[in-house]
Design brief:
89% of the residues lie in helices and 0% in strands. By secondary structure, the chain is an all-alpha fold. It is rod-shaped and about 90 Å long. The two termini are 22 Å apart.
Length: 115
């Protein structure tokens, strides 16, 4: 059995409390910095989806005008625009999730989950 010095234990507790307080302060600062991030991401998602649908519809109308296939070009390319918009939104959401996971997995966070 180990014979631990009470003053050593107190120093270790103080060190752990200081590390915890530092981590809480960093998380609080990070929260304050990212207060507008959800609104920005929502605007980005909607803009990407709308832009893809507008471009697809525009190309469809252009093809309909020159090929004289009136509703079909618009319908087909509007479908392509919707599919491209959804793909862009999914890709942007995945990128955001990967960034969040990468910032949350600091070495200290990994140590806490393994213990």
């Amino acid at each position: 059995m180990q014979d631990t010095d009470p003053s050593d234990l107190g120093a270790r507790i103080a060190k752990a409390q200081a590390e915890r307080a530092e981590k809480a302060a960093r998380l609080d600062q990070k929260r304050k910095e990212s207060i507008n991030k959800p609104a920005g991401m929502a605007l980005r998602y909607s803009a990407e989806l709308v832009a893809a649908v507008v471009v697809g519809g525009g190309l469809g109308l252009l093809i309909d005008h020159f090929a004289r296939t009136t509703p079909w070009g618009l319908l087909v390319f509007m479908g392509f625009g919707i599919a491209a918009g959804m793909r862009n939104v999914i890709r942007a959401a995945k990128r955001l999730t990967d960034e969040t996971v990468a910032t949350d997995e600091t070495p200290a966070a990994r140590e806490e989950t393994t213990q």
